[in-house]
Amino acid sequence: MSGGTHTRFDAVIVGAGPAGSAAAILLARAGWVVALIERQRFPRRKVCGECLAASNLALLDVLGIAGDFDAEAGPELRRVTLMLRDDEVTADLPVNDHPRHRWGRALGRERLDTLLLERARAAGAHILQPWSVHQVVQGVAGTWQCEVRSLESATILHLNTAVLIDAHGSWEDLPVQRSSRRLARSAADLFAFKANFTGSLLDDGAISVLALDGGYGGMVVADGGLATLACCIRRDRLAPLRSAAPGQRAGEVVQAWLQRECSGVAAALEGSSRQGHWLASGPIDPGVRIRSDDTLFRIGNAAGEAHPILGEGMSMALQSAALLCSHLLGNKAPETVSMQALQRAYAADWRREFMPRLHLASVFAQAAMHPPRAALMMSLARCWPGLLTLGARWGGKVRIATRSAQFEHPVPGRASTGML
């Protein structure tokens, strides 16, 4: 474990994606002794959008990676294009009112995750990677004991903490949690796919949103001119496509479908070269997982997941981490905080801030996947392109979670109270 071998911590965070690393940075800088556990090695590719809305960029300043982000991220995203078959409508994205961070940009998860993790390490967080959590037990007075194991040796550690933060991704559960995954298959299950391309003809200042028969998707130019094409497709749409192309990989089948289904995709990929394999995951599970009676804290997708059609996953990850930390750093030491009261307050704030985004994303996703509804949506957008601008504003592109905004102005830290 980097930085020493502590066994008692003020906070243990499971998962070093953007949510987990952001929380580790903010807490460690405030003087908390933090353990950050991640089972995968970095850098890593993920089936995940790469857009960071303008509302998050001031938070990157506080997290200490704004300079690297500015130097490496793709072009400013000033427009949004809705694509349906051979039709498309383009509108301006809303402008953030921050004097320096007016528009969002895109950076690959391989780089963003690494930047945040290294900043957490520099802030003093104790990084266990690659390590996994094998057992979690809640003790008296709300304390936790976590048994963690190195994936490279037989080392086992028992970590004690008052604050346990679940920052897992979409397809994992902590041992203490009863898996809530739906085991039964459904025709409506959505599977996610993603690939990167060089030499694309994609408009490098726009986010392209794809309305597809049985799915939805998006395209954007990120760092190094690399174009990202991602989509979600229903099980009952994917199955016949695969049956009609025996022997082909699922990603290859999906790419051919996208190019047939949407002329904008075909035009953008003309003459391009795919970099690496298609990534696939799923079925995705949009919905709310946070509860006011939780005994641990959830951030990122562990708290709740929106349909990715709005590209708000990264915003919800970073902002939920900051939102939780604003509660945890309420000028009280970890051992004096009423965790039950804090959990209720955090859960209420989370729902107020993020539930509108989940609802809007669900409505938009269902419309995009259903051809008659998608046609109506396109007709409305053609008559009133500003509807796309308004939708992006409603979706949170220029709005940061209220309590999270306090971190746009760094606050003094406090001395650690939890280290033995």
Q: What is the approximate shape?
A: globular
Q: What is the fold-level CATH name, i.e. the topology of the domain at 8-73 and 106-179 and 286-370 and 400-408? A: FAD/NAD(P)-binding domain
CATH class of the domain at 8-73 and 106-179 and 286-370 and 400-408: Alpha Beta
Mean pLDDT: 88
Integer-rounded radius of gyration = 21 Å
Helix content range of the residues, please?
25-40%
Given as residue ranges, the uncertain stretches (5+ residues, pLDDT < 50) are 410-420
Q: Helix/strand-derived class? A: alpha/beta
Distance between the termini: 16 Å
Most strands sheet: 7 strands, mixed
User: What amount of the residues lies in strands?
Assistant: 15-25%
Instruction: Work out the helix count.
Output: 11
Strand tally is 18
The SSE order reads EHEEHHEEEHEEEEEEEEHHHEEEEHHHH
CATH architecture of the domain at 8-73 and 106-179 and 286-370 and 400-408: 3-Layer(bba) Sandwich
CATH superfamily of the domain at 8-73 and 106-179 and 286-370 and 400-408: FAD/NAD(P)-binding domain
The gist of it:
It contains eleven helices and 18 strands. It is of the alpha/beta class. It has a domain at 8-73 and 106-179 and 286-370 and 400-408: FAD/NAD(P)-binding domain.
Q: Which features would summarize this protein structure in a list?
A:
420 residues; alpha/beta; FAD/NAD(P)-binding domain; 7-stranded mixed sheet; 11 helices; 33% helix; disordered C terminus
